[in-house]
Description:
The complex is a heterodimer of chains A (137) and B (404).
Chain A: H1 17-24, E1 29-33, E2 39-40, E3 55-59, E4 63-72, E5 86-93, E6 98-104, E7 116-124, E8 127-134
Parallel strand pairs in A: 6-8
Antiparallel strand pairs in A: 1-2, 1-3, 4-5, 4-7, 5-6, 7-8
Chain B: E1 9-16, H1 27-42, E2 49-54, H2 65-73, E3 80-83, H3 90-103, E4 109-117, H4 126-132, H5 136-141, H6 149-164, H7 168-182, H8 196-201, E5 204-206, E6 209-210, E7 219-228, H9 229-232, E8 240-249, H10 254-259, H11 278-289, E9 298-300, H12 306-315, H13 324-327, H14 346-349, H15 357-370, E10 383-390, E11 395-403
Parallel strand pairs in B: 2-3, 2-4, 9-10
Antiparallel strand pairs in B: 1-7, 1-8, 4-7, 5-6, 8-11, 10-11
Amino acid sequence: MISVMPTIAPCPTDVSKPFWDGCRDRRLLMQKCEDCGNLTFYPVYICPVCSSENLAWTELSGRGRVHSVTIVHRPATPVFASATPYALALVEVDEGPIMMSNIVGKDALQAKIDDKVEVVFEDVGDVTLPRFRRTGG
Amino acid sequence: MGLRPNVEVAIAGVGETAVGNLPGTHSTGLYIQAAKRAIEDSGIDKNEIDGLLTTASVVDDNVRHHMVIAEHLGLFCKTLCDTLRTGGAAFGYALQLAQWAVQSGRCRAVLVVAADNLLSGPGLGHGVAAYTELGAHSLEFEVPFGAHIPAFYALVAKRHMHEYGTTPEQLAAIAVACRKHASLNPAAQKREPITIEDVLNSRMISSPLHMLDCSLISDGGGAFIVTTLERARELRRRPIRLLGAGQAQSYYHMGHLAGGIGHPLDRKGEFNLTNTVQKAAARDAFGEAGVTTDDIDVAEIYDSFTITALMQFEDLGFCKKGEGGSFVEGGRIALGGALPVNTHGGLLSFAHPGMPGGIFHLIEGVRQLRHECGPRQVPDAKIALVTNVSAVASNHSVCILGRD
């Protein structure tokens, strides 16, 4: 059993709860504007492009690629000390938005920009985090 | 006093505390010491100060921080009084707010002051954590993945290296130049000269940023006083004129910064991790001052990390986008080079008490233009550029100062 990287658990809010509930259900959700089509992340109250309130939670493919990645050797807080070195990345999902996450799994520390990745959902205590693993190619 | 929209403003006085490790000093004590020194430096009557701007303290926060400082200083009735939350970008912003307050006729003189004890207050190591956990979206969508501020900038640096071929050696050249200048500054926290190899051999914090690519953690503070140029000329010190200023703030969440969510559709792709809105702030500052990059004698460039400074040479227009790496090579940014940068030592070697860090760039710009910097003086400096940056290269302030 490989130990799962720890976390400082997020506190879901009224607007973000569907995102975190989705993670628990193994679904990566983002809000799509039904008026202008814009897909947005992180969760918002109105569309930041057209100000519409018609936002629909939409399931994504879970695939993306690495926009940037750093290997963290010195953790900010002791919570992450046992996990160093770890890969912190900005992942551009295939549908467009860029989110922060970790690259985990085999050869995670060799991750580089433009690597293809796919989401993996990791249960850490009471929360489920969307992290990514390299898929090659 | 009525509106004075075209009145020129100047910095009439500056002051700073000792910096480094100052155990046993509360941040408010540092605030008061810095403010008192700036007031004394200018020679202004305290009762003439009717504006006060602070940046609070990460260690001892208070939503009415500006009132605490006003009470300690005995500044009773102010027409402008607030705590700024613009972090490291606060001081060019505060200078411009002070300018507007003076030009509106509602303020005669504005005191800007910032201090903190980020090193000794929370204990070594905890300052970084305290500083990282500012900001709600960061707590929900960045911090859970082990993000911290060095890692944020490391992601920017990796992208810059990927897009433009920037090297670790080029990043290191900035740290080396700052340390060289700090070695000439008796007040600086770190004064031992370093080499590019020293930077590359220092502990990796978050790749590609080594420990010596990262700014210091310090105690200390500074202050400056803004009034009309006319009034400043009656006071003790040579006034330093504000020739031009520009501000630009984009988005803090790194996904937004990188990917253009919420950007106007017609400007999609114009701004990203390596193309910041600093160019908008620079356009305003240079335009207002009526000068170009060729006219800058000395530049005090916000350097929370080496990459923070490197990208600014591009966005400010000193070189083309992507050429920041070659720009900083070969001693160009060291004293004696074409553009001496961070002559006090910068955040990398002078001090970085957190929020107050950028005030030292402004104070150094003033001191350079007053020609009082001794062995680190840029000969005959007439025009200085000062930048402040915060919130991971998303808040920018650019000021151009001139010797009167």
